[in-house]
Amino acid sequence: MALSAPTPPSITAQTRLLVVAPHPDDETLANGLLIQRVLAVGGAVRVLLLTDGDNNPWPQRWLERRWFIGAAGRARWGSRRRAECGEALYRLGVPPSALQPLSWPDMGVLDRLLQPDRQAPAELAVTLADFAPDLIAMPALTDRHPDHGAAHVLVRMALARLGYTPTLLGYLIHGPGDAAPEPGSIGTAAEQAAKEEALAAYGTQLALSGERFRRLARRPERHASIASVSSAADRGLPWRPSPLLWPCLRLTVATTSGEVRQWPWRDAPLRRDGHGGWQLDWPAAQANEVCFARLSLALPSPWIFDHWGWREI
Q1: Domain boundaries, the chain
Q2: SUPFAM superfamilies of this UniProt entry (predicted)?
Q3: Cα–Cα dist 170/19, whole Å
Q4: Res 232: pLDDT
Q5: What are the residue ranges in the chain where pLDDT is below 70?
Q6: Which tens digits make up the pLDDT trace of 248-273?
Q7: pTM above threshold 0.70
Q8: Which of 17, 80, 84, 297 is the most exposed, having the fewest neighbouring CB atoms within 10 Å of its CB?
């Protein structure tokens, strides 16, 4: 699937909106207006919160006046952030029963995707089957936060398990276009005020990054339709990394059918395309399965965001 131009989805009293939020605040920053509009016409909303946002050490150190954060401290912080999410949704008009937290590890959604038992797509499939949404707002594949890109892939896997095709909307919070003016949905004064009031529930996030979060909340909400890619789509990778980086690179590939593999770049099943680029020479790609590829550095780094991230090929 690929992102197409943003188009307002048709929202009626029969709409069942599922918002997939990797962390507390994603549901408000990127979907606060959409949530209000679905509720205003009598539709149903559920928020699937993948993590509690417990791996958020610098605001925690600042607010709790402590340097060391152990397992108990992280759990306490995650509980606090999850409670903030419940309060933010309450301010948007969402009942407490509509929040479904999975409590996966923060900065661990990619690890859930890589687990060989494939339990994460199965867990998401249960949620999808239970709520039966006809509209899903989910992170865009190109979002540079590793939890967000992996969340996109996992939702697509879960949908493929079910053979289920609701309308899919991608939202971008961290990425090349996250600060650029974009066409999108602009709320009424009352809707925008409610969204900003909901954001105010996130004292943990506003303590150190208040201006940035308020700026994000004031942007028009852009939900790009995720449309199917032709089966004849090029299997070429979008990256041409320098040979100097090859020893440090890792290629991860996942399919909607649930197959996930990871290789050092030099061991990956690649071939030259004759134009200086690379193509994936892998049975799943050759069988025209939907594939998601991620290029990353296999080195520890304090920088959490992806440089290359995911692409659908």
Answers
A1: 2-227, 243-312
A2: LmbE-like
A3: 10
A4: 43
A5: 1-9, 176-184, 228-234, 286
A6: 999 999 999 999 999 999 999 999 98
A7: yes
A8: 297
pLDDT, residue 43, reads 97
Cα Rg, the chain, nearest whole Å: 20
* pLDDT for the residue numbered 8: 57
Sign of CA dihedral 253, 254, 255, 256: negative
Share of the chain above pLDDT 90, in %: 78
